[in-house]
Design a protein that fits this description.
Elements (H helix, E strand, L loop, with lengths): L11 E2 H5 L15 E6 L4 E6 L9 H4 L9 E2 L2 H14 L3 E9 L2 E13 L5 E10 L1 H12 L1 H15 L5 H15 L4 E8 L4 E9 L10 E3 L4 H9 L3 E6 L2 E10 L2 E11 L13 H67 L6 H33 L7 E4 H18 L3 E5 L8 E4 L1 H17 L5 E9 L3 E3 L2 E3 L2 E8 L21 H7 L5 H11 L4 E4 L7 E8 L17
Parallel strand pairs: 1-6, 15-17
Antiparallel strand pairs: 2-3, 2-7, 4-5, 5-6, 6-7, 8-9, 8-13, 9-10, 11-12, 12-13, 14-16, 17-20, 18-19, 20-22, 21-22
Length: about 575
């Protein structure tokens, strides 16, 4: 019988089958190598197979058994779906399926034909088919070589766990598994549950195809991958009659941390049918995947610990460098105070005016020393998370006036221009923050601009940005963006990322040349963030000046004389 019959073949009726009841095995008269009748659940109501005795079974043993007992399809879910389609549509369907019986695999061409009752209902299906001898041998090859494969996979697991290098683990895994299982392609994906996506990190292939390494995609795009990660069980998918995929998750302590995909494509090999992995093989691959998952977890932990060690060493180095610079900064004003006071005590002043000058110099050194100590105490509080601020209304014009009083004289002494530009409003601009800390931030920024600028000038301006946002469960109508721009020495692009790191200085020699602890920007950033704002630094490079901006919540919206059309990026 040709099982590749056209789908228009008519359905059988129960009366047709009843005529065969007088024969010992009525299905033998159909002329097919294999024939059986199943109900909607897949239970075998009748069974006939010419090769039954060759494989140590009888037709009677199969009759009355369930789909998953003796003669069972490898992909039961797919086969049950075929049964349901044929019963519901009352139309025949052709297929190729892999069946397992007595520890052997059989690749079958089958046709499922609905059996109609007298009332034109379909409750059972007649399945007819034939096996391919060459394909049966190929399918059973894995069973014959299982002991060798088990030994290979065990050795693979041992080799992988000898290293703590993630890249080596990934590449060894795909190369070894791909070769041992005869796959045409093997890919391993890294997986982080909190990110919800997979990234191809290593690949083995027998053909020159475009590499997938580095490819990322959300796991929701691949239901089979989601299933493997959720169940931690190997999944075999017959993608086509010539391509089979084995998917298995790697895990550690029942938590997935990767995914392995093995593909066998018979179009790329001189084979009659695709590779079919037995349950024993897939279980063995699952065990190896668990070992790989453990190796990945240990290597990841080692990598994290190594990174933490390097960061701790770098932090220790930076603190040592910071302490060296700070000790110099502390000694300088302290020596100045001691020196001028000693001159006064020893009567070295020629007249009261010179004595007054000595006292003034000692006082200036004391104030400078106090500023350094305050910086150190502030950063210590910030690092310990103990910086507490009382926030309330702050007038922007009062803030700018106070800063100007402190810094304009310094600018004039260096022959630098000094400009402050307020937004064009008809009433006061009121911020939500802490007055003393906002003044400290502005003084830090302006003092830095003055320190590192030798010609040109400094410009301070502010803009009102109408953009509602919430901070500490309180909604604000907008914010004010303050800019401090200078024409000073600037900062090279490759060093700007160090500006806001605690205890990190862009250039230690520059700090010694210009003085200071190098904590100003870090402290300013932390203070502004504690008040609901952000700090940004801009410079096109050395010698090209710099601009620092920070934002502060707006307590209330002022009446603008002219509304700016620029859409500020805050």
């Amino acid at each position: 019988m040709n099982v590749n019959a056209n789908y228009s073949q008519p359905s059988l009726s129960v009366q047709n089958l009843d005529l065969l009841d007088t024969i010992s095995n009525p299905l033998a008269t159909i002329g097919a190598e294999l024939a059986f009748i199943q109900n909607a659940d897949g239970c075998y109501l009748a069974f006939y197979w010419q090769q039954a005795k060759e494989h140590g079974i009888t037709d009677e043993q199969i009759t009355g058994t369930a789909l998953d007992e003796i003669f069972t399809p490898v992909n039961q879910k797919d086969y049950r779906e075929k049964l349901q389609r044929v019963i519901q549509s009352a139309m025949p369907e052709q297929s190729q399926c892999l069946f397992r019986c007595a520890e052997k695999l059989f690749f079958l061409d089958i046709i499922l034909v609905p059996v109609l009752t007298a009332s034109a209902q379909t409750n059972t299906v007649l399945v007819m088919g034939r096996s391919h001898e060459g394909q049966v041998k190929t399918a059973n090859h894995a069973t014959e070589t299982f002991p060798r494969l088990k030994k290979q996979l065990t050795q693979i697991a041992r080799n992988i766990r000898r290293t703590l290098d993630l890249d080596i683990i990934w590449q060894q895994a795909v190369d070894s598994l791909g070769k041992a299982l005869g796959a045409t392609q093997c890919i391993i994906y890294s997986y982080l549950p909190e990110q919800g996506y997979l990234r191809a990190v290593a690949e083995y292939t027998t053909e020159p195809i475009p590499s997938t390494v580095g490819l990322e995609f959300a796991i929701a795009q691949e239901p089979s991958f989601c299933q493997a990660l959720a169940t931690l069980q190997p999944i075999v998918i017959e993608k086509t009659t010539q391509q089979v995929q084995l998917i298995v998750a790697t895990c550690y302590q029942d938590q997935p941390n990767g995914l392995i995909s093995l593909v066998y494509d018979s179009t790329q090999r001189d084979r009659d049918c695709p590779q079919h992995w037995s349950v024993a093989e897939t279980d063995l691959v699952g065990e190896v995947a668990d070992q790989i998952g453990t190796a990945i977890a240990h290597a990841t932990l080692y990598k994290e610990l190594e990174l933490a060690r390097q960061q701790a060493e770098e932090a220790s180095r930076l603190k040592s460098e910071f302490l060296a610079n700070t000790s110099h900064e502390i000694r300088t004003p302290l020596n100045g105070m001691i020196g001028f006071l000693k001159l006064i005590l020893e009567g070295m002043a020629d007249d009261p005016q010179e004595q007054q000058e000595f006292i003034q110099e000692a006082y200036s050194s004391a104030i400078h020393l106090l500023d350094i100590i305050n910086d150190i105490l502030d950063i210590a509080k910030i690092e310990a998370g103990k910086m507490e601020l009382e926030l309330g209304p702050v007038k922007l014009d009062e803030l700018f006036v106070a800063v100007e009083e402190f810094t304009r004289t310094q600018a004039e002494q260096k022959n630098l221009s000094f400009h402050i530009c307020m937004p064009d409003t008809s009433d006061e601009i009121i911020l939500h923050g802490n007055y003393q800390r906002l003044k400290q931030v502005l003084l830090n920024l302006v003092s830095n601009a003055l320190k590192f600028t030798h010609e040109g000038g400094i410009t301070i301006n502010a803009d009102v940005v109408r953009k509602k946002f919430t901070f500490q469960n309180q909604e604000f109508p907008g914010l004010v963006k303050v800019r401090v721009a200078d024409t000073g020495i600037g900062v090279s692009l490759d060093k700007q990322d160090k500006l806001f790191q605690s205890f990190s200085q862009v250039d230690g020699s520059r700090t010694r040349q210009y003085g200071g602890t190098g904590l100003g920007l870090t402290i300013s950033q932390k203070l502004v963030e504690a008040m609901g704002g952000t700090v940004n630094f801009y410079s096109m490079g050395e010698g090209l000046g710099s601009t620092v901006t920070f934002t502060v919540p707006l307590y209330q919206v002022p009446v603008m004389v002219s509304i700016p059309t620029e859409d500020f990026d805050v």
